[in-house]
Amino acid sequence: MRSVAIVGAGQTRHARRRKDVTQVALAREAVTSALQDAGLTMDDIDSVVVCSGPVLFAAVNQPEKWLVDAIGARLKPVVRVTSGGGTGLAGALAAVNQIRGGFAERVLVVAYDKLSEGALQYSISTLYDPFWGREFAVGIMGFAAAYWRARMDSLGHTEEAAAMVSVKNHRNALLNPYAHVKKEVSVEDVMNSRPLCWPIKLLDVPPISDGACAVVLSSEDAAKASADPAWIRGIAYYSEAENAANRSMIQSEPLTIAAQRVYKQAGITNPRRQCDVVEVQEPYTCFELSYYEGLGLCPPGGAADLISSGATLIDGDIPVNPSGGCMGANPIGATALIRLAEVAQQVRGRAGNHQIPDARVGLMQAGGGWANLRGVAVVASTKG
Amino acid sequence: MTDGLLTGIDQPQVLETTLSLPYTLTTGRAAGTFLAELGNKRILGSRCDKCARVMTPPQDYCSRCGSASETFVHMPERGTVTAVTRTDRAILALVQLDGSDSGFLHRLAPDSHHAAVGARVRAVWADTPSQSMLDLDCFALDDTGGHAGSAIEVGEVAVVAELAYSLTLHYKHAYGPHYGRLFDELATHRRILGSLCPSCRNVLVPPREFCDACFVRTAQYVDVADTGILQAFSVIHMEFVGQTRKPPYVYAEIVLDGSATRLIHTIAGFDVTTAAERLQIGMPVRAVWKDRADCHGTLDDIDYFEIVTGSERGD
Question: Cβ of B234 and A146 within 8 Å?
Fold first, then answer.
């Protein structure tokens, strides 16, 4: 199989609302930054993958048509990929497969959402069956809160443990120039914050953001021009039947399967020891706890101990979300690609103030739907 | 059997739903300036400084070369029809304004029935501006003038930065045989149906053609109880656009006795402000049905699920 590397990445200034740019101008900002980071121009790009959330988010159908014109990608191949919070990773996987298959040497992946334009929870709630349950849907928050509560009983994922995730990610976001939520919070602040869908409280929830991210993926040959490629050592995205029988939702099977496959591809047998940095897409703090277990950073039921131990802090032995994760900014369609871009920049030594010293292997995770779409990728500074 | 059944085959039965979504759209520099200038009865275009093409309406980035160096220009109000079609509401045309390299989609005046490609037209302005494309009311046929010259550069002008917008989307979801039967039974007999997978022997609610896990055809309908176990719950305090009930309320996932799948509903009949302490996962619950007169064959025929206390169960 052909090797694939990330040779450039860029993000926008994220904000609660970007009044200065249209959807496509937002995407263009990330593209310009990624091409600059890669030392390339649009002429070097063979194919474009556009990633964004459901069209209900911002009321523009087939936004990729508008977008390719605005980024100067006229007459290039383009596909759009959408998969909830995992959208950007699903798009990166599509790009990786275009290169592996020999269709393209360099693919630009651009992911964005301008969430300030529409009614977010209402739009997300339309992923429920209109006959059976939609009237009770509260985006994915009502659902996520319900299964976090269930995990408290079976896995000990307490409110305090999740609050520690919020404290850690908020603190890390202070170091990230792209984050727009910049405030230190304490465990008490989180515990005392207003319940939205109990046990999820206001400070367990990332912001709603306008933002974009772009990544340039390259074949091995084309990557020879790059001084510091970040090699994709493994990448996978899995689903499961949402309404199948006997789903406990205590652990995510697709996450376990994706992690096992990616670890096998990347030659990882002990992720906690072999990975230097981790970025996970946490729609709410409780998700990060379950990812620790699904990714094998700790045994099932060990997440609360892992966060309490300080191991996932920026100076811990397995730092998780040194960028601040979604807590700093959460443009949903872009957020998975931001996690991938962050680990790529870490292993390229370009992560700035939140750089993990000597990071060589990065692990990222993102997912879509509510619990039934989960993806994982490992990137490294060497091809392996 | 009555005519009102959802499983009727003479005409497909549908669930009608409507989504009413509010938006605040960001126009960006080009569209925002274009809209502001329409209010001043001027048509704005843009000229790419690299490839010198003039586009109307203006764009922030050249769609040909991708350059961001667009200069705004005022366009002549006259042009030539390059394409025309008639709909039941308007005569639509692409109008290439004099000096422009692109077609501008707009409507022609209602009396333009004989308009053809090549016809000369001029802008007609609305009497009262509404900050929309319709500040330019339409183009009217007019072959009195010659070509009106070229685009003129403009300085800084005001921008319409945001636009309120809404989408109202009507849907007709077909029930199909399984949902139809389910809701007919629910409305007529207060009976909840599942379907049995012959392979894993699980009963799936709502009933369906295939087992999601085994992907074999389900064998038969099975009645399930209107009692069950609370598998997961949260307490909704948040308010949001499109919400169907007033917080606080309980979001509940229930596994009905005799089934192996999740039913999404609410738990009520107690002081919901105590839900966090009062509710326990694994707790038995029971459907409280609405009066028959209020039942219409939806999940809403169950008003809520109530907690079954220990003494009622005889434990």
Answer: yes
Chain A residues near residue B31 by CB distance under 8 angstroms: 22
A73–B66 CB contact, under 8 Å: yes
| Residues within 8 A of B (CB atoms), A 108-127 only | 114, 116-123, 125-126
pLDDT in tens, A132-170: 989 899 999 999 999 999 999 999 999 999 999 999 999
Q: Which of B66, B235, B244 is opposite residue A195, by nearest beta carbon?
A: B235
What's the structural domain count of chain A? 2
- The letter for the amino acid at B53 is R
Let me know whether B197 and B290 are in one domain.
Answer: yes
Query: Cβ separation of A245 and B197 shorter than 8 Å?
Result: yes
CATH number at residue A187: 3.40.47.10
Strands A78-81 and A47-52: parallel
Residue B79 lies in a domain: yes
Interface contact A74-B64, CB threshold 8 A: yes
Is A345 inside a domain boundary? no
Residue B226 domain boundaries: 171-313
Model pTM score:
0.95
For residues B70 and B180, membership in a common domain is answered with no
Complex-level ipTM: 0.95
